[in-house]
């Protein structure tokens, strides 16, 4: 896909849950809590001081630095799958047991361990393809006029 | 790819049945995601099976507890039979027990469901300790033992105070560990990952339970998920102090492991805490830092009318229950204020025997077992303002229940329950000269 028409950027990492999907990015610059941080029934962030408070991640490519808080993290994201509110894919920076297990039981394509920080390089609303089979995140759209 | 032993390959290939094969499949996917080279053998699992959630209830209604276990605890969609737990496995805290029936907005249906789940899982060999502090009621792993535990405050206690080795596990990894006796050998299981990363130098002596909570909240905020090493003339902590310290550090940050040289077993000395690396420049904890943490934990309270007081997060120790009982002798709670002391059922039995439960109940308070308001998302009806001696609960409950919080000493909290008013203030620090 590198260099294909419309491709702005290709981020290389390691796929940890296989699969390939395309959609819009939702970027969190802050880590995300599972228990006390998300509401599985609606797929929204409920932590009051969080930058994405009240925002729904269902069907979005969730781009975030990593997981924080309770070990219930994986169970809460698993619940989003069971209730039909899961993100479309996960793209995260910091690999921990919570985030790794959470991605597996959410069963969405997931890439981590990037050469470049995806949180800094991807913006909310960007059209992205997550190719977890090859450990790639492809960002589409025109290059912005200033360096990101 | 994770390397498997012949025994593990046989489990993966179905020798021990479909559930064990599914569990091995999950553990292999998980180990590969982490980049673990192999699996650890474990004989100590602390997880959660019996707590009803909307998703679990739906699965139970579709296919009973076997279905719920397959999907939630093994990430498997097949119809399987749940085997007996292969290794000792305990249930962590869950929804309120029978003692909560009728006294709070907690669904009777969920209490029934949970009792049903308890019978099912205990028949499969799960030890229903029903507590966030398994180490207070007999589950004490030995030094260096590989274990698979959930619950952030239990994980930090096991790693740091007991010297056992665990990562912060989840529902599916503990479910899979319980019927295979395996968990990815990664992170805190490896000695090289257990050395300190940050040095925290305290200029204050810890004068008791509240001080350890404030210090823990400061440390977690300062180091986030790293491994702090605390030095200074700290005094001798007891079980409740370190339980509170670790829980606070795991709430404000994500600390899974810490060292206090001379006090915690992986670090007889400062040098041992850091291994071959030289200690980094210290972060200072002094009067100003202590005050700032106290103010931050108390920044969510406006109204001084307290309608709910909560003691015991993580679950109260016997010593803590005794302290509450002593502070309540011959007093009566304010009419508009509830007091709950949360503890495991096993410790409640001792509290009953010691007469403490009766003292607390005579005053109008309750000793409740097996869970906490944050897990059940339930406080007494109409609660607007609560007070607690737990930094962890002061951190979480305002977000979860949308209520105001006061953080103080155990005695200040009891006083608020009796008067209905918050009158707490920070006592002067013990500065080490």
Automatic annotation (TrEMBL), chain A:
Keywords: Lyase. It comes from the Bacteria. Residues 32-111 form the Phosphomevalonate dehydratase small subunit-like domain. One of its GO terms (molecular function) is lyase activity. Gene3D superfamilies: Phosphohistidine domain. SUPFAM superfamilies: LeuD/IlvD-like (SSF52016). InterPro entries: PMDh-S-like, PMDh-S-like_dom. PANTHER family: DUF521 DOMAIN PROTEIN (AFU_ORTHOLOGUE AFUA_6G00490) (PTHR36577:SF3). This is Phosphomevalonate dehydratase small subunit-like domain-containing protein. It comes from Streptomyces rapamycinicus (strain ATCC 29253 / DSM 41530 / NRRL 5491 / AYB-994) (Streptomyces hygroscopicus (strain ATCC 29253)).
UniProtKB/TrEMBL annotation, chain B:
The keyword Cell membrane does not apply. Signal peptide: none annotated. The keyword Lyase applies. It comes from the Bacteria. InterPro entries: PMDh-L-like_dom. GO terms for molecular function: lyase activity. Residues 3-415 form the Phosphomevalonate dehydratase large subunit-like domain. Keywords: Iron, Lyase. This is Phosphomevalonate dehydratase large subunit-like domain-containing protein. It comes from Streptomyces rapamycinicus (strain ATCC 29253 / DSM 41530 / NRRL 5491 / AYB-994).
